[in-house]
């Protein structure tokens, strides 16, 4: 397999209007020769992906710790305005008593994540579909999430997957702590589009085999339009909210990831949304 020259890496896409669009991870063998050009060295895949996308959600941090050197390397291999979202460890969220998650959260925050510097984006605390909403239990977890670490402001988001969270009490609790509720769309998970934090975090999971860009063009147009409306401080009217939304007075950052579905086409869908936002 021939080596690819440095010049073969395209110019970075760049974020648009505070909107960051990407995929989950960057290491996936079926992307080679489809998303990644033939001959691209595997060690340069992050460099290439970050030239086409504006953000990546890191799933590996959910399963185990990374080294500070890894976070520093990711920082150095990506464009200046690139953003990483990190999944919090499952050891913090997959437990019966959430108040006991403090040590797992602390280990994650001190594992070197701030080596990403200005490229550290939201932290996704993902819960299993069997975890039900208990106000006291969940508030105990939110109390453990610090506003900052090592001099850097932290952005927390929670991904809940049980219908019991479609509750005004949950929405009020998330707003009280300034934590974003992740919108998980085009999937079997409950859709909770309420905007509870200073940013929006969406994960869309409906790419399909046979669609050249993963999604039909109308669906790509719709997600780009929603992202632009969120970024402008609005709330798309076509989503079913738990509580009536109130427009924001100022623009907000938006993080949108094409996840799961027909994964081989996720980069194509993300790039198509970025193109629409230009």
List the helices and strands and how they pair.
Layout: E1 19-24, H1 45-52, E2 55-58, H2 60-63, H3 68-76, E3 83-87, H4 90-93, H5 102-109, E4 120-126, H6 135-142, E5 148-149, E6 152-153, E7 156-159, H7 168-177, E8 180-181, E9 183-185, E10 199-204, H8 217-231, E11 253-258, H9 266-277
Task: Tell me about the largest β-sheet.
Answer: 9 strands, parallel
Low-confidence stretches: 1-7
Q: How many angstroms does the end-to-end distance come to?
A: 35 Å
Coarse morphology: globular
SS-based class: alpha/beta
Strands of the widest sheet, in order across it, are 8-7-4-3-2-1-11-10-9
Question: Short summary of the structure?
Answer:
The chain is α/β, with parallel strands linked by helices. The chain has helices at residues 45-52, 60-63, 68-76, 90-93, 102-109, 135-142, 168-177, 217-231, 266-277; strands spanning 19-24, 55-58, 83-87, 120-126, 148-149, 152-153, 156-159, 180-181, 183-185, 199-204, 253-258.
Protein model, in words:
By secondary structure, this protein is α/β, with parallel strands linked by helices. The protein contains 9 helices and 11 strands. It has helices at 45-52, 60-63, 68-76, 90-93, 102-109, 135-142, 168-177, 217-231, 266-277; strands spanning 19-24, 55-58, 83-87, 120-126, 148-149, 152-153, 156-159, 180-181, 183-185, 199-204, 253-258. The chain has a 9-stranded parallel sheet with strand order 8-7-4-3-2-1-11-10-9. A two-stranded antiparallel sheet has the order 5-6. Helix 8 (217-231) crosses helix 9 (266-277). Residues 1-7 have low confidence and may be disordered.
